[in-house]
């Protein structure tokens, strides 16, 4: 499979595109003013414990406190921290008695310091999701210092290789620690695994040492930036080449890969051309389309993708596609084409959380079953964890996709300053009638014989044309002469009624 990684690096923004067979497969964006936080480790301070939600709010030094759920607290760590001299004897005894499913109030106390890692970026008005289950990724391994477990990537399917890797880890790991073998480690040597493990163990010792000396809230460990993370996680043997348009970033990447994958060094290419790199690869147009609400299908059908605070809704429509034989076949073909496009768009746009897909309703059970199986197959390539329910009688598919960071639209867009992100504004007619009611209501206490209404030009046009007869009727009713004055810098919702002598 022909895959490239294309990096557009500038002082104000780094953009990374994964291109497969000429098509944009993944897009990642990071700005220096908005660096990603997932993976960072903090010495935090518990500021509030909520037994009713079985969660706690932890101050880690960001604008908003982080959210720590009871299942994300490491019991052994809490025991150690509660055993400190300042912890009460009753708190320690409570944890010992409730070792199975302990309550949040028995694990953490307000004012307690606790080592946490960001598992999910702050999104919208929500603070970061925190966890005490620390994980430290490297090229071939993910280290879980507080977990006694060995895991092998599910994408390594050969049972012999899986068992061989498990034995290598068992021989090398310190007792009581955990490691996950990543997909790229399928064919690595024992020496390479040992080198990764040694690095991660030294890193963890350094983190613990810094945490013991730090006062909360304090950043203890900062994960790699987006570009280096992409190289660590995405740059594998299956990638044809990694192309970057910044000479300084090119040198940085060369130095970085020498430490863990020197054989890939020759595949890092510096792009030196007057044509911008994303234009040369045809990526710029795809990125612009990735935030559009409407996505056209090749057949002439289309998708509508809308995100609310709670979930994302994808609506499938036949559009211009009218089919050749009968309605059922037209609907079936549109839905099957939509399956591939939806799986692609979810990954490209990094849409997570609850997702509802409204396929066009199909009458036959066989078609619904084939649609479901096709969707499962299409989503199997997604690296994020997904859970998909069967097609309902209404043609709806409910699913979840793991979300750890903001979607592409959240990164690249902001709420409309007109509608405040609602997606709608009051109609011109509604605003006109609001003005009429205000004039009628204020007429009795206002003096003078003349009224000037200052409005947005669009509203002025409506008042002077479509609502002219109502305006004249209002003049007769109030006995006032009404003048409409357009003001170009007024918000369409804003207006001013001035009573003149």
Automatic annotation (TrEMBL):
<dbReference type="GO" id="GO:0005737">
    <property type="term" value="C:cytoplasm"/>
</dbReference>
<dbReference type="InterPro" id="IPR004659">
    <property type="entry name" value="RNase_E/G"/>
</dbReference>
<keyword id="KW-0698">rRNA processing</keyword>
<dbReference type="InterPro" id="IPR019307">
    <property type="entry name" value="RNA-bd_AU-1/RNase_E/G"/>
</dbReference>
<dbReference type="Pfam" id="PF20833">
    <property type="entry name" value="RNase_E_G_Thio"/>
</dbReference>
<dbReference type="InterPro" id="IPR048583">
    <property type="entry name" value="RNase_E_G_thioredoxin-like"/>
</dbReference>
<keyword id="KW-0694">RNA-binding</keyword>
<dbReference type="GO" id="GO:0004519">
    <property type="term" value="F:endonuclease activity"/>
</dbReference>
<dbReference type="GO" id="GO:0008033">
    <property type="term" value="P:tRNA processing"/>
</dbReference>
<comment type="similarity">
    <text>Belongs to the RNase E/G family. RNase G subfamily.</text>
</comment>
<keyword id="KW-0255">Endonuclease</keyword>
<keyword id="KW-0699">rRNA-binding</keyword>
<keyword id="KW-0460">Magnesium</keyword>
<dbReference type="Pfam" id="PF10150">
    <property type="entry name" value="RNase_E_G"/>
</dbReference>
<dbReference type="GO" id="GO:0004540">
    <property type="term" value="F:RNA nuclease activity"/>
</dbReference>
<dbReference type="GO" id="GO:0000049">
    <property type="term" value="F:tRNA binding"/>
</dbReference>
<keyword id="KW-0963">Cytoplasm</keyword>
<keyword id="KW-0540">Nuclease</keyword>
<keyword id="KW-0378">Hydrolase</keyword>
<dbReference type="GO" id="GO:0016787">
    <property type="term" value="F:hydrolase activity"/>
</dbReference>
<keyword id="KW-0820">tRNA-binding</keyword>
<dbReference type="InterPro" id="IPR012340">
    <property type="entry name" value="NA-bd_OB-fold"/>
</dbReference>
<feature type="domain" description="S1 motif">
    <location>
        <begin position="39"/>
        <end position="133"/>
    </location>
</feature>
<keyword id="KW-0479">Metal-binding</keyword>
<dbReference type="GO" id="GO:0046872">
    <property type="term" value="F:metal ion binding"/>
</dbReference>
<dbReference type="GO" id="GO:0019843">
    <property type="term" value="F:rRNA binding"/>
</dbReference>
<dbReference type="InterPro" id="IPR003029">
    <property type="entry name" value="S1_domain"/>
</dbReference>
<protein>
    <recommendedName>
        <fullName>Ribonuclease G</fullName>
    </recommendedName>
</protein>
<dbReference type="GO" id="GO:0006364">
    <property type="term" value="P:rRNA processing"/>
</dbReference>
<keyword id="KW-0819">tRNA processing</keyword>
């Amino acid at each position: 499979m022909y895959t490239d990684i294309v990096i557009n690096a500038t002082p104000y923004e780094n953009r990374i595109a994964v291109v497969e067979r000429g098509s944009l497969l993944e897009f990642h964006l990071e700005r220096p003013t908005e660096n990603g936080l997932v993976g960072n480790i903090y010495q935090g301070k518990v500021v509030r414990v909520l037994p009713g939600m079985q969660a706690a709010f932890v101050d880690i030094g960001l604008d908003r406190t982080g959210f720590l759920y009871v299942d994300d607290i490491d019991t052994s760590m809490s025991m150690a921290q509660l055993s400190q001299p300042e912890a009460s004897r009753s708190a320690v005894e409570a944890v010992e008695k409730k070792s199975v499913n302990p309550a949040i109030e028995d694990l953490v106390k307000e004012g307690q310091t606790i080592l946490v890692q960001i598992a999910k970026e702050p999104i919208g008005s929500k603070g970061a999701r925190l966890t005490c289950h620390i994980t430290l990724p490297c090229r071939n391994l993910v280290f879980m210092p507080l977990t006694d477990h060995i895991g092998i990537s599910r994408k390594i399917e050969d049972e012999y290789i899986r068992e061989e890797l498990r034995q290598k880890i068992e021989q090398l790991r310190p007792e009581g620690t955990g490691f996950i073998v990543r997909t790229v480690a399928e064919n690595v040597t024992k020496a390479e695994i040992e080198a990764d493990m040694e690095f991660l163990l030294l890193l963890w010792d350094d983190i613990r040492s810094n945490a013991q000396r730090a006062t909360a809230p304090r950043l203890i460990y900062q994960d790699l930036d987006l570009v280096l993370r992409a190289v660590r996680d995405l740059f594998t043997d299956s990638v044809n080449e990694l192309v970057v348009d910044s000479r300084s970033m090119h040198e940085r990447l060369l130095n970085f890969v020498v430490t863990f994958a020197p054989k890939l060094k020759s595949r890092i290419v510096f792009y030196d051309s007057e044509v911008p790199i994303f234009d040369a690869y045809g990526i710029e147009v795809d990125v612009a389309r990735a935030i559009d609400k409407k996505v056209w299908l090749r057949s002439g059908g289309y998708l509508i993708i809308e995100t609310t605070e709670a979930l994302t809704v994808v609506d499938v429509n036949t559009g211009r596609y009218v089919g050749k034989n009968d309605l059922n076949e037209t609907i079936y073909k549109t839905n099957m084409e939509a399956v591939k496009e939806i799986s692609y768009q979810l990954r490209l746009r990094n849409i997570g959380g609850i997702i509802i897909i409204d396929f066009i309703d199909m009458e036959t059970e066989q078609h619904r079953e084939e649609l479901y199986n096709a969707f499962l197959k299409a989503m199997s390539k997604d690296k994020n964890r997904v859970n998909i329910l069967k097609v309902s009688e209404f043609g709806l598919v409910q699913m979840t996709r793991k979300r750890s960071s903001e979607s592409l639209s959240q990164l690249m867009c902001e709420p409309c300053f007109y509608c405040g992100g609602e997606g709608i504004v009051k109609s011109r007619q509604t605003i006109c009638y609001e003005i009429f009611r205000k004039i009628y209501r204020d007429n009795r206490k206002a003096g003078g014989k003349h009224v000037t209404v200052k409005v947005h030009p669009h509203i002025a046009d409506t008042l002077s044309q479509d609502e002219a007869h109502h305006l004249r009727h209002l003049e007769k009713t109030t006995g006032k002469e009404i003048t409409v004055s357009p003001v170009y810098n007024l918000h369409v919702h804003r207006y001013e009624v001035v009573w003149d002598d």
